[in-house]
Amino acid sequence: MVYIAICDDETKIGAEVERALINIFDSMQVKHEIDVIFKSDELCRRMEAGAHYDLIFLDIEFAKDEINGVEIGRLIREAQHNDMVSIVYISWERDYAFQLFEVRPLNFLIKPLEHDVLEKTVKTYLKIAGLWSSEFSYSAQRATFKVKVKDIVYIESSDRKLILHFADGRIDEFYGSLKEVYQEQLKKFDFLFIHASYVVNFDYISAMKYNQLSLIGSDMPLPISQGRRNEIRERYFAIMKRRRV
């Protein structure tokens, strides 16, 4: 089940997006529930009260007495610490694109919305969501463990041990080759092999510089080795382009 919110103060746009999404999800035989909300404050209240959405189509311009879409995105990411929901911005103006970078939207669509663009965005979301539920397996203490790929922030190599760092702060250790783990299990899930000692989940990268990157919720940057900098930069932006970030 995919839980969707459409938040736009133009009732006609909200209704059109809802009809289009119903047709798209029905044609793909994907179960879904859609809430259409016409005030940005109402979306905030619902989410603060515990409403869960997997995918939000969010207008940027609202009435002057309401929160605009950019600020809502920041509230979702920063105040609510919600990095899981995929946000698709919709607007009549193209000028907002740069402001949206820190919110890490799935896409930015220009009104009037075209059906094929909406369909492509939904397919991108479903592809990412499918990877999001995949599992990573490893052996430790004569047992095999499986964890969700989405829960791994990064893997660190120390001597012959690999240290798993999870989003909830947990760590676990097992013996293995970082290169083999990356090639065999993690490369296809958009992990970046930034250093001989580090493989990082793209979804937890908050900023990238030439020689290091920062992770969401961490004050400790991780180094990008000199020999990998051009390759990592190209792969990083290729992932962004593919996801239409």
Major sheet, described briefly? 5 strands, parallel
Enumerate the strands of the largest sheet in spatial order, edge to edge or round the barrel.
2-1-3-4-5
Stretches where pLDDT falls below 50 for ≥5 residues? none
Number of E-type strands: 15
- Mean pLDDT value: 89
CATH top level assignment of the largest domain: Alpha Beta
Estimated radius of gyration: 19 Å
Number of helical stretches of at least 4 residues: 6
Q: How many domains make up the 3D coordinates?
A: 2
Coarse shape:
elongated
What does this structure look like?
- This protein has 245 residues and is α/β, with parallel strands linked by helices.
- It folds into 2 domains: 2-132, Rossmann fold (3-Layer(aba) Sandwich), CATH 3.40.50; 135-242, Beta Barrel (OB fold (Dihydrolipoamide Acetyltransferase, E2P)), CATH 2.40.50.
- Helix content is 32%, strand content 31%.
- It is built from 6 helices and 15 strands.
- Helix 1 (11-27) packs across helix 4.
- The chain is elongated.
Using brief descriptors, characterize the structure shown:
245 residues; alpha/beta; Rossmann fold; OB fold (Dihydrolipoamide Acetyltransferase, E2P); 2 domains; five-stranded parallel sheet; five-stranded antiparallel sheet; 6 helices; 32% helix; 31% strand; elongated
